[in-house]
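Reopening this ticket.

The earlier resolution said the output was attached, but the attachment link was broken on my side. Pasting everything inline this time so it's all in one place.
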Amino acid sequence: MLRIHFSGNDLAGVRMAAQPDVLWETILSFHRLRDRRGPMVYGEWRSEARVRLGAETRLLAALVPGRGYFPDFLTPPQGVLGVDEGLDAIRATPPGRIHAELALLGATRAGRPAVPAALRALAEGASEPLGRLVGALRGYHRAAVEPYWSHVRARVEADRALRGRALLDGGAEELLDSLPPMLRWRSPVLEADYPVERDVHLDGRGLLLQPSYFCRGTPVVLRDPGLPPVLVYPVTHSEAPTVREPGLPSLAKLVGHTRSAVLSAIGEGGTTSELARRAGVSLASASQHAGVLREAGLVTTLRHGNAVLHTLTPLGAALLGGARTPREARCYARNGPVTS
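Inline output:
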């Protein structure tokens, strides 16, 4: 069981990551590559990625076991800025920290604090082994993550829009209560099933929520309690990539496939750029279709600075076969339609 303990100051410091974190997605995708679970979501990706991968997986396999602990230095906060910034941060990791975390990796594997043989050169702090690690991570990312990044980003942005609406509706507690079902908010503690017993005390530092495409089943937290707290949790996936939201096939016949895709992409809200990425259309096309949907009373548009935010009206939500209130819409996004 994982238990994250909040104070009032911690609730005030809850925040959403601005975008997907490239290093969390890279490391967690390496977990997904080696297991057979989630075939409808990850099966085709596994097959395609394995064709492109080479020897870089050997070093990563020694560093990132199939389950359990992997070193915290592999996922620095700079990963949210991009692959280059994240890898530069890994390259700048102090040798003492690398040695300590690799020793911990050895302890969790063998029951004693010994660095695995394949990683001893890296643990000694030489620049060449660290350079090889950075090269292996870059090569793996290029083969297994980069080709799918637009889809990863779209799914994470859709989740962020959902959580943002929960925050606007009811504050931090509503946001925590809106998280996927494996996370349970029982004020003042956020609980989740976890491989080991773990208590995280935020101590006034707040919590960064990082939705992840390649996270599966259980959330992930950093091992070192001295690092800024972050909770990586799975975004909600469809059971099969071909499954459409309820009502979309007939809706497409009514308003056209592209316009129905834009309406579906709005979900709990999004900017024109986000709609374009989620629906796979150009920015101009997303803007045009959003305008038509607005004139039909299906979408409301609000301007915020230089951006506009599109949200569904009750009529638009009903047309999609979803719920008519924000709370019902969140339940629909988490659990799917309720049938009797």
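Reporter confirms the inline version is readable. Confidence is low (pLDDT under 50) at residues 239-248, 322-340. The longest strand covers residues 207-212.
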